[in-house]
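Task card 7
Instruction: Convert sequence to structure tokens.
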Amino acid sequence: MNSLAAKRLNFRIDALSQGTSARACRLRTLHNEVITPVFMPVATLAVLRSQDTESVSALGFPVLLANTYHLLLRPGTAVFRKTGGIHNFMRWDRSILTDSGGFQVFSLSKDVRITEEGARFRSYMDGSRLMLSPETSIETQKIIGSDIMMAMDQCVQSTLEKKI
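Output:
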């Protein structure tokens, strides 16, 4: 990140809840300011459903949510390298948040094996074997061109009993 970009990034807490951990914040990305709490329209595959980016932009949404796991599988990182990132690909000039892909590995993949290195799984699309590590997740999000990247998470089964 160059020094100009570093100067433009900013995070500020505007308000803290007295009784909970809730907070209202302001986050400056390379594209715009996002004030939380915020609703993010979902563009899982870098495509909005039932609205185009111009319509969503006109409604004032400051940020969209895209999915690293799905974008890694389709269209793949080569497309984002070729187009110069998700903003150019979508024609979206505001912030984009990408999740890590961890939940989708857990919920959509068959034959998942979690190791210290990451998650080994089969693609739901073609059955190919893939590895998603924390490093791969972040590298993929960088190639995609995300403004706000989520760190790799590991989901647990909802049927697990709480340890006492």
